[in-house]
Amino acid sequence: MPAIKTWELLAFSEMEWIQKGQNPFFRTYGGTHIETFFAVAAENFFDRPQEMSHYNRKLYDHMCLMLNQNSLTLIYELD
């Protein structure tokens, strides 16, 4: 399965948790549309990569594939 399709399945799962008020990680407006969730996920991918990778490693890994970069390595390169 292509990375984007797997990412979509993971994203819809997270969106369901957001809509139910049971997602402790992503902002609530991430549950409104898949495009909005992508924006929220990308924000966390770059701003909180360690936390995101611990929260949902599969989603994080698929973001790495789609964006062709690993934001965790960016942290270590900047130190």
Folded structure, characterized:
This protein starts with a helix and ends with a helix. The longest helix has 17 residues, at 3-19. Helix content is 72%, strand content 0%. It has 79 residues and is an all-alpha fold. The chain has 5 helices and no strands.
Looking at this protein, list some descriptive labels.
79 residues, mainly alpha, 0% strand
C-alpha Rg (nearest Å): 12 Å
Specify the overall morphology.
Answer: globular
The structure class reads mainly alpha
Largest sheet: none
Q: What is the gist of this entry?
A:
The protein is mostly helical and 79 residues long. It contains five helices and no strands.
Topology:
Layout: H1 3-19, H2 34-47, H3 49-55, H4 57-67, H5 71-78
Helix pairs in contact: 1-4, 2-3, 3-4
